[in-house]
Write a structure and sequence with these properties.
homodimer, 358 residues, alpha/beta, eight-stranded parallel β-sheet, five-stranded mixed β-sheet, 15 strands, 20% strand
Chain lengths: 358, 358
């Protein structure tokens, strides 16, 4: 239902980005990259969470060398995040990085950038021009968050530089800490630039407020058709970034199908323990693949309607609760057995779909 | 920075809605309305959370009578949520409700709707025409979530009815469980209707996923300038709905100023305990009024830049951490004293702003 803006298609490792390909989810490790064991342990958890693209910081030579093992041990394409020292970008590519993220605000050396471009185009490595309001190039720097236009100008200058230097797979980002500035910057650059856009709100904050801020910013852009790959930036475990990213995509119908619990906000009409039942159901359905819509509704206002639309549903009533399946009432159960009865039906459906799940 | 779509201005109790007035935050009690004591206790907590508009379900006569006391005991305007029995709407207005929410899908009686309209126009009570995908009028009902067009048609029919019946303060909502359908429906109705729009995603789910879903849907609409009042629907304490609603508004620069912790997502470069410091700071700043931007940054990539833009900031370094205030370095502290040093500076600023806070 969302009409996506057209961008060029590039391929990062084995993941296509842009040109209408599925929107990919990224995160970044927060272990010391040179601590290969800790980094691989974290990457394992990130991969389990169904992340598509991985980024690792490469602040020193030891980290660049560590990439060789890291790239070998994960299925995800690996992007090396480079600042200050362009030589580390070359070393990261030598060690197998599928992509390089360069921030025009932290590498000033034109000679260095040319070397990066040369190496990237020879190796077919993707370059992300990643501009950030916290580290904007001096010539574009303005007050508070860098106005959207300044972020865009800096990014376009970087893009032109890499295009002219022969790089033929580019991604672009123009992140700000301010969500309105971020939205404005991406709206502007999506009109000016054909390369796929990596979207996100930079330094969004802690798990709860940072997730809300990211959902607003990334969600607003995706709803306008802008964005080819996303990263949620949280001061939290990278696995949480992946979970929130997938949830944002799922909300907009942009993720692979997975179970979804519709539940009412409860009010004076509520006849069953909606909060308890919905939370427990969500917990039990985590990690399950495939489409399954379960409605947990407190009363008869939207209850029967929602339950009818869902694959499975429960609606509270005065005396008992009604269980719906495929739009039909299949059982009437005492209210205190609501959760148990619903879970039994969920399990039947899951067993039916795949024998192994039971 | 967001250009809001123009709507008519109405006044609900003492809260103006539409016509460019600040976007108000709503929630709904989930106690039995007839249990006045429990309802007032919850309303007290909702008011403390800075909610603007309150809604209560009125499923029976006892609840309608309870409104008299409830309306008297709160400063917020009170909207009575009516389904099935139009007589309860009259009784709610007699007992002081400032607004009535009517769902055209749950009250079919034209005679009843006329009586509601007559009473509302005489008393100057605001009527919300609140359409919902789970209880759409039969004539408009389509598969799964009701297509956006069906929600809009049902709402516009209701609006015309109340306009023709002489009601001159109307709000409109077209909520669906599907976020893309919700966004599409509001985009459509905002072109067709001048009355202020109450926006939200219905039955969004449990606290975490429901908040993300609401942030995506409500955030995307607000970013396009659509929406005059918002309600986040969560299977959770109504206070959480208010918190999330305010956070969505704040994210888009649409809420009164309050402290904001910018914090980096941490990576291999991180030199201080960003997650711990940011979480603790956020906790300490909760409930404080006024603008204050504090940046917690792990390293020197975006650290100095963000810290410079913030009122107060900390950036991790190899040996020690730098504290910034108003763009200047004011201290260099051992990394293990980062939190303590930052909190001391925050407290100095808060004391300076208001003597009572210290």
């Amino acid at each position: 239902m969302i009409e996506r803006k057209k961008t060029k298609r590039i391929v990062l490792g084995n993941v296509p980005v842009g040109g209408g390909e599925p929107i990919s989810v990224q995160t970044m490790t927060n272990t010391k990259t040179s601590d290969i064991k800790a980094t691989l342990e974290q990457i394992g958890r990130i991969e389990c969470a169904r992340c598509d693209i991985l980024r690792v910081a490469v602040p020193d030579e030891e980290s660049a060398h560590a990439l060789r093992k890291i790239v070998k041990e994960t299925k995800m394409p690996v992007v090396a995040d480079i600042h200050f020292d362009w030589r580390l970008a070359l070393l990261a590519m030598e060690n197998g990085a599928d992509g390089i993220r360069v921030n025009p605000g932290t590498i000033a050396s034109r000679k260095g950038l040319k070397e990066i471009a040369k190496e990237a185009s020879q190796r077919g490595v993707v370059v992300r021009v990643g501009v950030n309001s916290g580290s904007l190039e001096k010539e574009f720097r303005v007050k508070r968050d860098g106005e959207a236009g300044a972020l865009v100008q800096s990014a376009l200058k970087g893009v032109t530089f890499f295009e002219d230097a022969g790089v033929n797979a580019i991604k672009v980002s123009v992140k700000a800490t301010s969500v309105p500035v971020t939205i404005q910057a991406y709206r502007m650059i999506s009109k000016e630039c054909e390369w796929p856009l990596h979207i996100g709100v930079t330094e969004a904050g802690t798990i709860f407020s940072g997730s809300i801020r990211s959902a607003v910013g990334i969600g607003a852009l995706l709803a306008e058709g802008i964005g080819d790959t996303i990263r949620v930036s949280l001061s939290a475990d990278p696995v949480e970034e992946v979970r929130v990213g997938l949830l944002i995509l799922k909300t907009l119908g942009l993720a692979p199908p997975s179970p979804w619990v519709v539940s009412c906000p409860t009010c004076a009409r509520c006849e069953i323990d909606v909060i308890g039942i919905a939370s427990e159901l969500e917990r039990r359905l985590e990690g399950i693949e495939g489409s399954l819509r379960v409605a947990v509704m407190g009363c008869s206002v939207n209850g029967p309607g929602e339950a009818r639309e869902a694959d499975l549903g429960i609606a509270g009533g005065r005396v008992s609760a009604l269980i719906f399946k495929g739009g039909k009432i299949i059982a009437k159960v005492p209210k205190e057995h609501s959760l148990e009865a619903l879970v039994t039906e969920v399990e039947k459906i899951l067993k039916g779909e795949s024998g192994e799940r039971g």
